[in-house]
TrEMBL record:
Name recorded for this polypeptide: GFA family protein
Domain CENP-V/GFA: from-to ranges: 4-119
Keyword presence, Phosphoprotein: no
Keyword Metal-binding (UniProt): yes
Pfam families reported in the protein's UniProt record: GFA (PF04828)
Length: 133
């Protein structure tokens, strides 16, 4: 039985992860900001869990930024971030692609020296359940 299950936005690439997650981090590096188009990436990390593609493995591609160890795996049809194996066998799972509830709280914010200027003191920003009119 899978510990985590997920798929991309178009539903082409489906996967399961079996095993323990070692940690969860919110990464504010400039590379992750570019990857996500947002203030940070939210990723789960595991050195021991196993990734199994249920369908669409051939629709997932991985980009490695030249001169760095930064990688991102994504669906080449819809662009959704997908799990991938990084250096030293580290499995990186974007939290947003999971359909299994993520119950672990992030361990830390990392690379905060690159934190977006607009990603500060957001507790008083209004919240809406859906797109405001």
């Amino acid at each position: 039985m899978a510990d985590y299950y997920g798929f991309c936005l178009c539903g082409n690439a489906k996967f399961e992860v079996q095993g323990k997650v070692d940690g969860s981090y919110l990464c504010h590096c400039r590379h992750c900001q570019k990857d996500t188009g947002s203030a940070h990436a939210a990723n789960l990390f595991s050195k021991s869990a196993r990734l199994k593609w249920l369908s669409g493995a051939d629709s997932v591609t991985t980009f490695t930024l030249s001169g760095t160890c930064h990688k991102i795996s994504f669906c080449k049809f819809c662009g959704s971030s997908m799990p991938g194996i990084h250096q030293d066998g580290l499995l990186v799972i974007p939290a947003g692609c999971l359909d299994t509830p993520v119950t672990i709280r992030p361990n830390a914010h990392i690379f905060t020296s690159s934190k977006a200027g607009w990603d500060k003191d957001l507790y008083d920003v209004p919240e809406f359940c859906r797109l405001p009119e």
